Fold each of these.
Amino acid sequence: MTNQTPAPVYLNLFRIRFPVGAVTSIAHRLSGACLFLSLPFWIYLLDQSLTGPDGFAQALGILQSTWVRIGLLLAAWSFFHHLLAGVRFLLLDTGVGCELRQARRSAWLVNIAGLAMTLACAGWLF
Amino acid sequence: MSRPTHGLRDWLLQRISAVYLAGFLVFFMLRIAIKPVQDFHAWHAWFTHPAMTVASTAFILAVLLHGWFGMRDIVLDYVHRLWPRLLLLSLVGLLLTGCGLWALHVLLPVAR
């Protein structure tokens, strides 16, 4: 124990190679934080939509604006990635797909499927 | 200052709430996709349904739990100095509590 070399400190972010699973994981955190920050918007929208026929029309109007739609796209990616990565983590928790090759493949699948579903939403929104 | 930690309990609650959130949101979106909401009355009637009141109240609770555990873990992992950490944790707790009360205030009067 006494002869141990100190842990390497190598924090140049441009030189660190992220394995695909790390990308899935950090994106899971990022998307979760985005969803957390979007909470007030959804409640506001729900509040507005339930006040009456006028409020309902107003809420739909809010969703038409270009800037809101850009935000919705970010929320869509956050939701899809967080959901898919979450299902993957639950499966890993129960011991499914823990073998390295499988875990890498499922990480790629999650990352790409999340983006693909967001792209589909973009086609539907714009 | 010491208090018991609840690692396993938190871990389990995070996952149970995750499963409920996923189930509810997938159901919600599929329902809207398959049978689009025509107007205010259909929308309002949906949220007036007792089953929906129970399900959405449970949804709010699940969001609060899941949001707290997730954001707490992020803050604890990346913010190490005491005061910024306490400040951020308080802000997360405040935002979640506020959102929870606001959401209940919106949903429960609709149900009556």
Note: The longest helix of chain B spans residues 82-111.
Amino acid sequence: MHILKSRPWNLPDSSATPEALVFGRRKALALGAGMLAASPALAQQAALPPAMRNTRYAPGRAITAEREVTTYNNFYEFGSHKTISAAAQRMPQRPWTVKVEGMVEAPREYDIDDLLRRMPIEERVYRLRCVEAWAMVVPWTGFPLSALLAEVKPLSSARYVVFQTATLPSVMPGLRQSWYPWPYTEGCTIAEADNELSFLVVGAYGKLLPPQNGGPLRFHQPWKYGFKAGKSLVSIRLTDQRPVSFWEKIQSQEYGFWANVNPAVPHPRWSQAQERILGIGESVPTLLFNGYGDFVADLYAGLQGERLWA
Amino acid sequence: MPACKAKGFGREDGMRLIGLALLALAVGLYLAFGGGGRGAVLFRLDPGLLNLVQALVQRYLLPMVWDNVLLPVLEAPAWVIPAVLGAVLFLISWNRARG
């Protein structure tokens, strides 16, 4: 007599997944990914690649509260006041591309997510010193600019790197001021760009960089005043011509090319000797090169004739 | 004496002169800056001025005062106001002189 014994893994035919669903799985996944890419809000929820904190750059101060950093912003394309964060949410973050071009062997245009996959992502806690005499400490996620430059291979004749911010008139009310020299342009020397501190930022506080802080891609050189950091970058161009930056064109006597932090050189309208730490309101003495002199002071040897300070 | 005063430089002449001066200013602004707005003209004269005014208004008054009140004024072509004022003054003085 043949006895049929039911095993837990014996499932009835009715439980089988329909063939169309099994073989359509790839399509369904692709559709989901497409929806994610099409919606800036959904893309914003996408996680940043895992990033280890690099402890070489200890800031020597407590990290500023995330809320302070994401609600007190300078982003001139959205206005001259600090409360631009709500307006900046209208700036789409995906799709986003950045061109690396000019005097390089291999110019190319990167999709931001491709860049996130290719670059050595890490977290660095940097001090940020604004020319307006306030300061904050931010855990940025990103990668060294030198890593990107290594991919495109600068020509030996390239001497400067020029950063250009997006111009999106439909979401940036500041662009209505047509008399200003848009797009926002900043720059540094190739030696400064190659310095280990020069950092392209894609995240903060372990999340994708919010638009009001310059998402999806901004630059940061912590020994310089904050206005030198181009936000929402769409172009990084290598050239042999020293660029005239946005603020230099408007008020060169207040915002120079080098703009290194120096407590001894006042802004024409206020002292730079002290800085107010955002969030706690405490004022502390400003440090030469914002405290990063050990990393960068040698960049300026022999440049004493230049106006190295903002 | 009254007759002599009537032939002198009167109010209408003054209005006509100011009107002509404003029209000349409008033409000059148009030739120099084309259809450029007042903001562009001010920026050419003093690049830092509007940045300072904008910061004062948006940071210490109200951002929308800049965006909705001052910016539309600055965006309008620089020659429009002197042209309109000049034309009005000239026409009034011409009309009074005829009457």
Note: The domain at 92-300 of chain A is CATH 3.90.420.10 (Sulfite Oxidase; Chain A, domain 2).
